[in-house]
Design a protein that fits this description.
α8 runs antiparallel to α10. About 4% of the residues have low confidence. The strands form 2 sheets. An 8-stranded mixed beta sheet has the order 1-4-3-2-5-8-7-9, sandwiched between helices. Strands 6-10 form a two-stranded antiparallel ribbon. It has 12 helices and 10 strands. The chain is of the alpha/beta class and 373 residues long.
Length: 373
């Protein structure tokens, strides 16, 4: 009886082992099938990635070829039009990027919101950055009267070689007349070849795209209000271009002369200031001539100018933003004036004199002189 029970027990165990073996084999087969399926999916994924990579490479090559063709066409057009633009930055190469400081214009100028990347046209530039001072000069066609060559001669000849290396002078041609741009570029490359080659002197131009159509429709500038509106935009664009180039930005005009050693005096005065709370430094009392700003503050000024560019001239807007900045609500005006003296620093004697008599506003004659010069 015991033997029979033992045999039955062995038989039962054998059946269990057989069943477990079958189960294991079945699971192994399933696992193998899953591994095979997984491997097939991996192979398919690799093939897909390879196809996409090849397609992407073909697209990149096609894009590069297209951009190369576009650049060739631009170069050919440039040569035929008198070698005006050295670089059209709205056509990008593979590794080119644009600073985004000009994107602020789209917020205040709605017509630019569908324009893609915007940037001034570069007529001549070595791309100098990382200097202490950027000097900005906006210029437009004054007909038979021109002061720009005299201004540049005065500004550049009174710098030492070391001061040239630590500065950049930017001429912004803010005129829709292409012939004036060509004349400026020719004059600069002829009379100031050394400064152009070293990178201290740059010329940019403002594309008509930047201006609202309502403004371009009145481009004769016979309306003083229209002229003032355009002038604000001209200065804002020049400031945005200069902002990333230097620690300080000096605003000038195209019809001024500078004192001997003006740059050395300006630099020494800025370095001698113990307070860093100044808003701007005034090296001339006229308009925006000789106004020195910290480059890091320029965006704040530009924002304010653009908010009210249709309402007041830019020198009046500068005074408005200054009063808003230094005067507290309800503060007595006398106290406000005292704070104004502390925040707006005036250097005497003035380092720049206005010499132009023919205004950039067509038909206007002005004899403005800085009596502190």
């Amino acid at each position: 009886m015991k033997t029979k029970n033992v045999n039955l027990l062995f038989a039962f165990v054998a059946i269990l082992l057989f069943g477990f073996s079958c189960f294991c084999i079945s699971r192994m087969n399933q696992t193998n099938n899953q591994l095979i399926n997984c491997r097939n999916h991996v192979l398919e994924f690799k093939e897909t990635v390879l196809r996409l990579k090849n397609k992407s490479e073909n697209n990149r090559q096609n894009l590069a070829q297209f951009l190369h063709q576009m650049k060739q066409k631009i170069t050919k057009t440039t040569k035929s039009s008198g070698h005006i633009l050295e670089k059209k930055v709205n056509i990008l190469g593979q590794d080119e990027t644009l600073p985004n400081q000009f994107e602020v214009l789209k917020f205040f100028l709605p017509h630019l919101r569908t324009a893609g990347k915007i940037y001034p046209d570069i007529a001549t530039s070595k791309g100098r950055t990382g200097v202490s001072f950027a000097l900005g000069i906006a210029t437009i066609n004054r007909g038979n009267h021109t002061y720009l060559k005299q201004t540049l001669t005065s500004i550049l000849s009174r710098m030492t070689p070391e001061e040239e290396e630590d500065s950049v002078v930017i001429v912004s041609v803010a005129d829709t007349d292409g012939s004036y741009l060509r004349s400026v570029v020719h004059m600069v490359k002829t009379k100031f070849r050394k400064q152009v080659q070293s990178g201290v002197l740059e010329v940019i131009s403002i594309p008509t795209l930047f201006y609202p159509q309502t403004l371009l429709a009145k481009k004769t500038m016979k309306n003083s209000e229209t002229w003032q509106i355009k002038q604000v935009l001209d200065y804002c664009i020049l400031m945005l271009y200069a902002q990333p180039k230097a620690t300080y930005y000096l605003q000038l005009e195209d019809d001024i002369i500078a004192k001997k050693m003006y740059f050395t005096k300006m630099k020494d005065f800025v370095n001698s200031l113990t307070s860093r709370d100044w808003f701007y430094i005034e090296f001339s009392v006229l308009g925006l001539i000789g106004k020195l700003f910290r480059s890091k503050d320029l965006m704040d000024f530009v924002h304010f100018f653009l908010m009210f560019y249709e309402t007041k001239p830019i020198d009046t807007l500068l005074n408005d933003i200054f009063l808003l900045r230094v005067c507290s609500r309800g503060e007595p005006f006398r106290n406000c004036l005292q704070q104004k003296k502390e925040a707006r620093i005036r250097y005497r004697p003035s380092l720049f004199q206005h010499v132009g008599t023919q205004s950039s506003f067509q038909g206007r004659v002005q004899n403005l002189k800085d009596h502190y010069y």
